[in-house]
TrEMBL record:
Protein name: DMT family transporter
Entry similarity comment: Belongs to the EamA transporter family.
Record has Transmembrane helix as a keyword: yes
Membrane topology: Multi-pass membrane protein
Source species taxonomy: Bacteria, Pseudomonadati, Pseudomonadota, Gammaproteobacteria, Oceanospirillales
Residues of the EamA domain: 13-145, 166-301
Organism: Amphritea balenae
Length: 322
């Protein structure tokens, strides 16, 4: 049985780094939600997501390539799963279901997959507080998804023809491979910079091979720079470079399960920030789902438990005479 390396203690530093990552993910989701129909193909978007980070991180990959050779192959494959496989599954799901569903299903269910794999494969114990927190998160994600589905039914003139099933399956598949990637970062024992370099370089190589073999197509030459630069900013710089590094650091600092639990805040924060940014309204159902997710994150991450223990062990000043 492989060594899982255990879960580190809850720390403010790790939470702060993960919150930066979550804000980057929220910006990415909101940019996709606000984006009109684009002429860019999935391959174009993938290249903007991975090619820019590849140019930045390739020197680190070449410098530390011998380090990768000392890592077990299955751990490297687990890290690669967070690149092109994850991106393609999200893109596939987006063809059948709204981006809002991806925001609820992918980061919302990832902690369930991470904990499930950690328990089943690495024999990691499941504390009661984490199991309770994950159950509450699942309830909140279910409410958010139900609210989104209900709104789509009301706004569609052809609600009987709506079929989000294939999209939801693709999003759940994306959540699963993201969980595999998260655990890979935890057990591989390499730093966040090298892991991000491996992920982005392997994804770029796969996309270039796909184009050269005629499997996929590109339309980037026919698209204006005004349409390209927001994608480069949100996907290449934000999610690809900054988000990749901060997520890896958060996993090393907090552990895979607590990091994934915090990541489920993404749909809740996206729903809140969409109010001032996109002019969307928060329904009672949405507010309930957001509140449940936030409560579940506090439980599953151990934040409430840590606060309670600190309160109980805090020394009190008694018996002091004037």
């Amino acid at each position: 049985m492989e060594q899982y390396r255990g879960e580190p203690e809850f720390s403010i530093k790790g939470v702060s780094i993960m919150l930066i990552t979550i804000l980057i993910w929220v910006a990415f989701l909101l940019s996709m939600r606000a984006e009109a129909q684009s002429e860019l193909t999935t391959t174009d978007l993938g290249l903007m997501r991975f090619a820019l980070p590849t140019l930045v991180f390739l020197p680190w990959l070449l410098r530390d390539f011998k380090t990768l050779l000392r890592v077990k192959l299955r751990y490297l494959v687990m890290i690669i799963c967070g690149g092109l496989p994850f991106f393609l599954l999200v893109s596939l799901g987006s063809q059948y279901a709204p981006v809002a569903h991806a925001g609820a299903l992918v980061p919302g269910t990832a902690p369930l997959f991470v904990t499930g794999l950690a328990v089943l494969i690495f024999r990691e114990p499941l504390p009661r507080y984490r199991g309770l927190g994950l159950s509450v998160i699942l309830g909140g994600v279910t409410i958010l998804l139900a609210a989104t589905l209900f709104a789509a039914e009301l706004n569609s003139q052809f609600s009987s023809e709506l079929n989000y099933g294939p999209g939801h399956l693709a999003f759940l598949g994306a959540s699963l491979v993201w969980a595999i990637y998260t655990l890979g970062l935890r057990v591989a024992g390499i730093d966040a910079l090298l892991a991000t370099a491996l992920l982005c370089c392997s994804a770029t190589l796969g996309l270039m091979l796909s184009l050269s073999l005629g499997i996929s197509e590109s339309n980037i030459a026919n698209v204006s720079w005004q349409e390209i630069w927001p994608h480069l900013l949100s996907q290449g710089l934000g999610a690809g470079i900054i988000g990749g590094i901060t997520y890896g650091i958060a996993i090393k600092t907090l552990g895979a399960e607590k990091t994934a639990a915090l990541g489920s805040l993404t749909p809740a924060l996206a729903a809140i920030i969409a109010v001032p940014v996109l002019g969307e309204q928060l329904s009672v159902t949405t507010i309930s789902g957001v509140a449940l997710i936030m409560t579940g994150v506090l439980l599953a991450s151990g934040a409430l438990r840590q606060t309670f223990r600190a309160t109980r062990t805090r020394p009190t000043l008694t018996g002091i005479k004037g």
